[in-house]
Design goal:
Structural class: alpha/beta
Radius of gyration: 25 Å
Bound molecules: flavin-adenine dinucleotide
Shape: globular
CATH topology of the largest domain: FAD/NAD(P)-binding domain
CATH class of the largest domain: Alpha Beta
Strand content: 15-25%
Number of helices: 16
Distance between the termini: 89 Å
Helix content: 25-40%
Number of strands: 23
Length: 470
């Protein structure tokens, strides 16, 4: 058995693990990176990348049906589903080298392609290699949560692990779970020709602002996605070629394909946390504000911690580990500035507090300002007048922003900066935006906040009058 001594041993080569490994190696630390399955983890292979490639294909199909209003005859797209599948594979292939063993070995990382498990509090075994490290980073990600539904084990179902690989468009896709993963896939398949029904025990997208979700729901309805909320699935059975899904009100939904998108659970099955002395909380790995586990030598980052499970969270966590491991800084995790975007049409994006959270925290001292896309010249020229930018302001500073509409995920960035850097609304208002852009919406919402303060102030009015007399 080989024994390797190293500064950092990273377990899991997904978004979080790769970011730690590349930065640590480039800073001159000895790094071992262990990956038991595919380099790139969920994001590259089963998550962000295939889903966004599928969405891009579906948008392209949808655009063909929307030409009439521009004077370009709309056509009904002829969709070659096997070609859509090839497009998804090509996109993954294009990005793969960035996450590859070869690239990481060139950076000086020792990559071990095997599952790693703790055999003591400071040793990990991966195949026949024993790694003794000063610090370990668990970055093993998450897995689709399979709910306990009677009959589910007797039918064929899909998850994010295999839904992007099907080469025929489902006739009728039933999606259990109306979170971001389920809803993105639902809209994409509907636009590629499938009938789609989404079933959710609560509201769909229930971490998002309900007013923004209503905008999205209106479009989903136009796309032909049937949404059933507040219905728990109680029973599933196969009936000749159909899958029958029965809900708590005893309605039967018949579909040809079933997708389970009912949440995530940490991927810890290979790792032997007990031996490492690492405690879990609600199944996820419990970490403190410095992302340390109950074993002070071991950190955990990304999805396995159960917090805001996004690629950018995992990468942000990686930055915290690097500050601590390479520079000896006591870097603390903050959560208030982590945004998220759901890549629907229209997109929906959030950073900081929602309107409800802001009111719960600060009551009437919060000001809500909102501007509609329908007032933006660029949105008008592109026939994209649907959506709004809403900003929650406390003591002159934005504490949350909700955007629903075209390119919401791009427009939110300025609020990400404003909130993480604690900028004032005056900073956004002072910016000059190029005209005509959707970005002007952000400036406009700041002006909407500041204008009444200036225009309704008797002091300012008196001052202006005095100036006129000079
Ligand atoms: C359909 C879908 C769409 C998504 N879209 C987005 C999006 O648009 N934007 C966004 O920000 N996020 C998105 N996400 C979430 C994003 O994919 C995850 O948040 C991100 O991949 C988490 O990174 P991670 O490093 O924590 O884990 P992962 O990327 O899952 O990597 C964990 C790695 O650890 C390996 N591993 C596990 N156990 C062991 C072990 N014992 N030894 C060795 N290796 C091990 C696994 O094989 C895996 O490769 C999406 C997720 C899904 C499912």
């Amino acid at each position: 058995m080989d024994k390797i001594y190293t500064d950092i041993c990273v377990i899991g080569a997904g978004s979080g693990g790769l970011s730690v490994a590349s930065a640590a190696a480039q800073l001159g630390l000895n790094v071992v990176l262990i990956e038991g399955h595919k380099m790139g983890g969920d994001c590259l292979n089963y998550g962000c990348i295939p889903s966004k490639a599928l969405i891009a294909a579906s948008k392209s199909a949808y655009a063909l049906t929307k030409g009439d209003a521009f004077g370009i005859r709309s056509v009904s797209p002829k969709i070659e589903f096997s070609e859509v599948k090839k497009h998804i594979s090509r996109v993954i292939k294009k990005i793969e080298p960035h996450d590859s063993v070869e690239r990481f070995e060139k950076l000086g990382v020792k990559v071990i392609q095997n599952y790693g498990k703790f055999i003591s509090k400071n040793e990990v075994l991966a195949g026949d290699q024993l790694i003794v490290a000063r610090r370990f980073v668990i970055a093993t990600g998450s897995e689709p949560l399979i709910p306990k539904i009677k009959g589910l084990d007797k039918v064929e179902y899909y998850t994010n692990k295999n839904i992007f690989k099907i080469s025929e468009c489902p006739k009728h896709l039933i999606v259990i779970g109306g979170g971001p993963i389920g809803i993105e896939i639902a809209q994409a398949y509907a636009r590629l020709g499938a009938a789609v029904t989404v079933l959710d025990a609560r509201n769909i997208l229930d971490n998002d602002d309900p007013e923004a979700v209503r905008v999205v729901m209106a479009q989903l309805e136009k796309d032909g996605v049937k949404i059933v909320e507040h219905q728990e699935v109680t029973y599933i059975e196969k009936d000749s070629n159909n899958i029958k899904v029965i809900t708590s009100d005893e309605t039967i939904y018949n579909g040809s394909h079933l997708l389970i998108a009912a949440g995530r659970e940490p991927n810890i099955k290979h790792i032997d946390l007990d031996i490492a002395g690492v405690i879990q909380s609600n199944k996820n790995i419990k970490v403190d504000a410095f992302l340390k586990t109950s074993n002070k030598r071991i950190f955990a980052i990304g999805d396995v911690t159960g917090e805001r499970q996004f690629t950018h969270t995992a990468e942000y966590h990686a930055g915290i580990i690097i500050k601590s491991a390479a520079f000896g800084l006591k870097a603390k995790e903050k959560k208030y500035h982590i945004p998220w975007t759901t890549y629907l049409d229209p997109e929906i994006s959030q950073v900081g507090l929602t309107e409800k959270q802001a009111f719960n925290k600060y009551g009437k001292r919060v000001t809500i300002v909102k501007v509609e896309y329908s007032n933006n010249d660029r949105a008008i020229t592109e026939l994209e007048p649907v959506g709004f930018v809403k900003v929650m302001v406390f003591k002159g500073r934005p504490i949350g922003a909700t955007i629903v509409g075209k390119h919401a995920g791009e427009l939110i960035q300025i609020w990400c900066l404003a909130i993480s850097s604690k900028l004032k609304m005056t900073a956004i208002s002072a910016m000059v935006s190029p005209y005509p852009t959707l970005g002007e919406l952000n400036k406009r919402v700041s002006n909407a906040y500041l204008a009444p303060k200036v225009l309704n102030s008797p002091i300012i009015k008196r001052f202006v009058r005095i100036i006129q007399k000079l």
